[in-house]
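WARN retry 2 of 3 for item q-0093 after timeout on previous attempt; input resubmitted unchanged.
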Amino acid sequence: MPQDPTERRVTVTGPPRRTKRASGYYRPRTEIDEQTTLGHTYVRSLMRSQLRVGLAALAVLGLLVGPLPLLFAAMPDARRLEWAVLGFGLYAPLVLLARWYVRRAERNERDFVRLVEDR
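OK item q-0093 returned
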Protein backbone atom coordinates (compact mmCIF):
# COMPACT_ATOMS: atom_id res chain seq x y z
CA MET A 1 0.00 0.00 0.00
CA PRO A 2 1.60 3.30 -1.03
CA GLN A 3 2.12 5.91 1.63
CA ASP A 4 0.20 9.17 1.47
CA PRO A 5 2.61 12.10 0.77
CA THR A 6 1.11 14.15 3.58
CA GLU A 7 1.95 11.44 6.12
CA ARG A 8 5.58 11.08 5.13
CA ARG A 9 8.19 12.08 7.71
CA VAL A 10 10.91 14.46 6.66
CA THR A 11 14.21 14.61 8.46
CA VAL A 12 15.74 18.05 8.58
CA THR A 13 19.39 18.33 9.43
CA GLY A 14 21.24 21.45 10.41
CA PRO A 15 23.87 22.75 12.73
CA PRO A 16 23.57 21.48 16.27
CA ARG A 17 21.66 23.69 18.62
CA ARG A 18 23.37 25.33 21.54
CA THR A 19 22.80 23.37 24.64
CA LYS A 20 22.43 24.95 28.00
CA ARG A 21 25.63 25.18 29.91
CA ALA A 22 26.12 23.62 33.25
CA SER A 23 24.25 25.35 36.04
CA GLY A 24 27.55 26.31 37.67
CA TYR A 25 28.63 28.40 34.69
CA TYR A 26 29.23 32.01 35.64
CA ARG A 27 28.15 34.78 33.23
CA PRO A 28 28.73 38.35 34.41
CA ARG A 29 26.89 39.80 31.41
CA THR A 30 23.75 37.91 32.43
CA GLU A 31 24.11 39.25 35.95
CA ILE A 32 24.21 42.78 34.57
CA ASP A 33 21.30 42.23 32.16
CA GLU A 34 19.13 40.74 34.88
CA GLN A 35 20.11 43.56 37.28
CA THR A 36 21.07 41.26 40.10
CA THR A 37 23.05 42.41 43.09
CA LEU A 38 26.26 41.12 41.52
CA GLY A 39 25.47 42.87 38.23
CA HIS A 40 24.78 46.08 40.12
CA THR A 41 28.17 45.71 41.83
CA TYR A 42 29.91 45.34 38.46
CA VAL A 43 28.28 48.47 37.05
CA ARG A 44 28.92 50.40 40.25
CA SER A 45 32.61 49.50 40.09
CA LEU A 46 32.81 50.88 36.54
CA MET A 47 31.04 54.04 37.62
CA ARG A 48 33.40 54.46 40.57
CA SER A 49 36.49 54.09 38.41
CA GLN A 50 35.10 56.62 35.92
CA LEU A 51 34.28 58.99 38.78
CA ARG A 52 37.84 58.71 40.12
CA VAL A 53 39.25 59.61 36.72
CA GLY A 54 36.86 62.54 36.40
CA LEU A 55 37.68 63.86 39.86
CA ALA A 56 41.41 63.56 39.19
CA ALA A 57 41.03 65.54 35.97
CA LEU A 58 38.94 68.14 37.81
CA ALA A 59 41.58 68.45 40.53
CA VAL A 60 44.33 69.01 37.97
CA LEU A 61 42.15 71.54 36.18
CA GLY A 62 41.56 73.33 39.47
CA LEU A 63 45.29 73.45 40.14
CA LEU A 64 45.92 74.86 36.67
CA VAL A 65 43.17 77.48 36.56
CA GLY A 66 42.55 78.20 40.26
CA PRO A 67 45.65 80.26 41.01
CA LEU A 68 45.31 82.41 37.88
CA PRO A 69 43.06 85.10 39.43
CA LEU A 70 45.56 85.49 42.26
CA LEU A 71 48.41 85.72 39.77
CA PHE A 72 46.56 88.30 37.70
CA ALA A 73 45.61 90.31 40.81
CA ALA A 74 49.27 90.44 41.81
CA MET A 75 50.13 92.01 38.45
CA PRO A 76 47.43 94.62 37.75
CA ASP A 77 49.16 96.29 34.77
CA ALA A 78 49.92 93.13 32.81
CA ARG A 79 46.88 92.81 30.52
CA ARG A 80 48.91 91.38 27.66
CA LEU A 81 50.43 88.79 29.95
CA GLU A 82 46.96 87.74 31.05
CA TRP A 83 45.85 87.19 27.47
CA ALA A 84 49.05 85.34 26.65
CA VAL A 85 48.64 83.02 29.63
CA LEU A 86 44.95 82.41 28.93
CA GLY A 87 45.34 82.12 25.15
CA PHE A 88 48.56 80.17 24.82
CA GLY A 89 49.82 79.06 28.21
CA LEU A 90 46.74 77.09 29.22
CA TYR A 91 45.86 75.60 25.87
CA ALA A 92 48.55 72.88 25.76
CA PRO A 93 48.04 71.66 29.36
CA LEU A 94 44.26 71.53 28.86
CA VAL A 95 44.61 69.50 25.66
CA LEU A 96 47.00 67.10 27.39
CA LEU A 97 44.64 66.78 30.35
CA ALA A 98 41.71 66.07 28.03
CA ARG A 99 43.69 63.43 26.14
CA TRP A 100 44.71 61.76 29.40
CA TYR A 101 41.11 61.76 30.62
CA VAL A 102 39.70 60.23 27.43
CA ARG A 103 42.38 57.53 27.25
CA ARG A 104 41.94 56.61 30.89
CA ALA A 105 38.12 56.47 30.60
CA GLU A 106 38.36 54.29 27.49
CA ARG A 107 40.82 51.99 29.26
CA ASN A 108 38.40 51.63 32.18
CA GLU A 109 35.63 50.69 29.76
CA ARG A 110 37.85 48.17 27.92
CA ASP A 111 38.81 46.56 31.22
CA PHE A 112 35.15 46.34 32.19
CA VAL A 113 34.20 44.74 28.87
CA ARG A 114 37.00 42.19 29.25
CA LEU A 115 35.72 41.42 32.72
CA VAL A 116 32.13 40.73 31.67
CA GLU A 117 32.45 39.30 28.17
CA ASP A 118 31.84 35.62 27.59
CA ARG A 119 34.89 33.46 27.20
